[in-house]
Amino acid sequence: QKQLVESGGGVVQPGGSLGLSCSASGIIFGPYKMGWFRQDPGKERELVAPISSGSSPYPYYADAATGRFTISRNNATNTVSLQMNSLKPENTAVYYCNATGPYLLGSYWGQGTQVTVSS
Predict the structure, then answer these.
(1) C-alpha distances in angstroms, 52 versus 56, 101, 112, 117?
(2) Phi then psi dihedrals of residue 20, to 5 deg
(3) What does the pLDDT read at residue 55?
(4) Using CA atoms, how far apart are residues 51 and 80, in angstroms rounded to an integer?
(5) Is 46 helix (H, G, I), strand (E, B) or coil?
(6) What is the CB neighbour count within 10 angstroms for residue 41?
(7) Within 13 Å of residue 48, how many CA atoms lie on the same side as its CB?
(8) CA distances from 62 to 2, 25, 49, 81 (A)
(9) pLDDT tens profile 13-68
């Protein structure tokens, strides 16, 4: 089965850090574009940080994440990570991992992991 499983969410204080990890199984990981998304209740899911496929993956960041978040991937272990530093209350959301393949390989989502930033 094709699966994405997120981990690392939790409750942290403002200014703290949190590392999220997404583990993929059932796919050949390398060709897939990966990304982290967030979603608040009643709102659209939005992109936080994508990272390209290939031998030299290139990350991008949403404006709110630039300078504080870092996305990385390890094709040997089929994982993609999101390191979140200097967290703010507005970063509170459910964070989802996504894998999107080329051509007919499709797109897959994890179940999400809750991140809560509260003093």
Answers:
(1) 8, 10, 21, 28
(2) -105, 150
(3) 82
(4) 9
(5) strand
(6) 6
(7) 28
(8) 27, 27, 6, 16
(9) 999 999 999 999 998 899 999 999 999 989 999 999 999 998 889 999 998 888 99
The answer to whether 10 touches 18, Cβ cutoff 8 Å, is yes
pLDDT band at 3 (very low <50, low <70, confident <90, very high): very high
Tell me if 2 sits within 8 A of 25, measured CB to CB. Answer: yes
Q: Which two tokens stand for residue 29?
A: 């990981």
pLDDT reported for residue 108: 95
Task: Judge whether 85 and 91 are in contact, CB under 8 Å.
Answer: no
Query: How many other CB atoms sit within 10 Å of the CB of residue 78?
Result: 19
